[in-house]
Write a structure and sequence with these properties.
flat, mainly alpha, single chain, Serine Threonine Protein Phosphatase 5, Tetratricopeptide repeat, 519 residues
């Protein structure tokens, strides 16, 4: 064999050895990550998931390996608390699966749908929650995991309850109970009734509540010898309290509502206790629980708004990940979110402390009590307005960072020797604006701004001066002034061109403040 040929073969052999060695290391990394996930070891970063995706996300790797890699990346973001990005990676993992392949990894695929269902439940998306768990149940059967299939079906009971389909809810719950009993899982069979008990209690169907509670309390295995339910299942106390309240056993109802106060359902508990004391005309207790209920309601509202803002930040980070280094971007966003959380938590703690002190001093003086409550409401409104201002500033910063916006700014400053935007560039600018400022654009449409007024308002909001707007739109400065004046009049009722920018910022802040609160 000639010397050059020996060198070529030696090189090929060396490359194969290196490739095989790396493949073995990556396979070990994947299996280690899966072991950690199965044994509840939380991922603290996305580095392992990203390395798996970078290695396996190629056509020459089997679909099952690509599926598993994206699953691990999604689990990393799930453990890190970024559920929106986790959901996107779980969706990508599902797309990587080849269900026509007889060797398809149905077991992993079913677990992915379970993860998606849990996130949909947290985000109050009942239809998506229902579909995800239905798919998990179907795929778990294909993977011959009957217990997981039944458990996934049990999750759909809550979906039907939220959707108001009580008949289907009970049909599914009874089916799940029957399947669990066939496998000898008596405790799980009883626990499936927790949601129907709550649903019927809310509807006032106390015969159904009594029947299901009898099974739940005898067979679920969730109660100790003193009748205390295991943590995480405190909604039982609320259902029990509603049953007693609805059957005029208010002392018993009061007992269970008080037990509920120490749980995550303290707002519902304080509201229920307030209604009992109002019926009894107990002034001191009414005053006490009205104050507690307002505090708990304010806490939940702020948590909901923070959740919405966190989801918006996550979506923004995912879109930017295609062009920026994901690790540094996530670190920066997470630090900002943490600082925001600490600030809001400190402000809320300060407000609640002030309310508590004032309440203790003036509890017997009705007039001063009302003044203290008003002060608290004003401070909460200011805190909410502050959050809205931060959200608006973040939206504007992200909008200014878009490439098309920077192009328009450059053309406005004549950095392109008088070049004017093309029709395609106008369309792209409008599309980017709609994505970042959807509520402002919606107000443009609702207020019936003309096409020219919309474009003038859009350019004004991204800090393009009037003379540059005239150049970009190829109209006179007078026409720009008229368009600003007309847009401002339609949006605020005041015919003032110079006040348009202030009006636009106010419209955006108002739009943020009226977003629906999710519970």
């Amino acid at each position: 064999m000639s010397t050059p040929l020996r060198h070529i073969l030696s090189l090929i052999f060396a490359v194969l050895l290196v490739s095989c060695g790396r493949n073995d290391r990556m396979r070990q990394t994947l299996e280690q990550a899966e072991w950690m996930n199965q044994h509840d070891s939380l991922f603290t970063s996305d580095s392992i998931g990203l390395s798996l995706v970078r290695y396996y996300d190629h056509w020459w790797h089997p679909a099952n390996l690509r599926l598993r890699a994206y699953y691990m990346l999604g689990c990393a973001y799930r453990d890190m608390g970024d559920k929106t990005i986790a959901l996107r990676h779980f969706e990508t993992a599902v797309q990587k699966a080849d269900t026509l392949d007889p060797d398809c990894d149905y077991a992993t695929l079913s677990r992915i749908f379970g993860e998606m269902g849990a996130i949909y439940g947290e985000q109050s998306q009942p239809y998506e929650h229902l579909h995800a768990y239905q798919e998990q149940s179907h795929l778990a059967l294909k993977a011959r995991d009957t217990l997981l299939s039944i458990g996934a079906l049990a999750h759909t009971v809550g979906s039907y309850s939220v959707l108001g389909d009580t008949a289907t809810m009970m049909n599914v719950a009874n089916k799940v109970r029957r399947l669990f009993l066939q496998r000898g899982e008596h405790e799980l069979a009883a626990r499936v009734y927790d949601t129907p008990i709550y649903t019927f209690a809310l509807k006032g169907d106390y015969n159904q509540v009594r029947r299901l509670l009898d099974i739940y309390e005898r067979e679920s295995g969730l109660f100790d010898k003193h009748g205390n339910i295991q943590p995480g299942n405190e909604l039982y106390y609320y259902s029990k309290g509603l049953l007693y309240k609805g059957t005029n056993k208010t002392d018993s109802a009061e007992y269970y509502f008080r037990r509920l106060m120490a749980s995550d359902y303290s707002m519902e508990a304080s509201e229920a206790l307030l209604s009992i004391y109002q019926a009894r005309e107990n002034a001191d207790s009414i005053e006490k629980y009205e104050q507690i209920h307002q505090q708990e309601k304010a806490k939940r509202a702020i948590r909901s708004r923070m959740s919405i803002h966190a989801a918006q930040l996550s979506e923004s980070k995912y879109e930017q990940a295609q062009s920026r280094h994901l690790a540094s971007q996530k670190e920066s966003e997470a630090r900002m979110a943490w600082y925001l959380f600490l600030f809001v938590a400190a402000a809320l703690a300060l407000v609640l402390s002030i309310v508590y002190i004032i309440y203790n001093k003036v509890r017997h003086r009705t007039r001063q009590r009302d003044e203290a409550l008003q002060q608290t409401r004003d401070k909460l409104q200011k805190a909410e307005a502050q959050i809205g201002n931060w959200d608006m500033a973040l939206r504007e910063e992200q909008l200014q960072g878009e490439e098309i916006v920077q192009l328009f700014v450059a053309m406005a400053h004549k950095e392109y020797n008088g070049k004017r935007p093309t029709k395609r560039e106008w369309g792209k600018l409008t599309s980017v604006f709609k994505r970042h400022m959807p509520h402002v654009w919606s107000q443009f449409v609702t207020s019936k701004l003309s096409d020219q007024e919309r474009l003038v308002a859009l350019l004004t909001l991204i800090d393009i001066p009037s003379n540059a707007i005239a150049t970009l739109l190829d109209i006179s400065p007078q026409a720009v002034g008229n368009a600003k004046s007309g847009a401002n009049q339609k949006l605020s009722g005041e015919k003032s061109a110079s006040a348009l920018l202030a009006t636009l910022k106010k419209v955006s802040q108002v739009a943020d403040s009226i977003q629906p609160t999710q519970h």
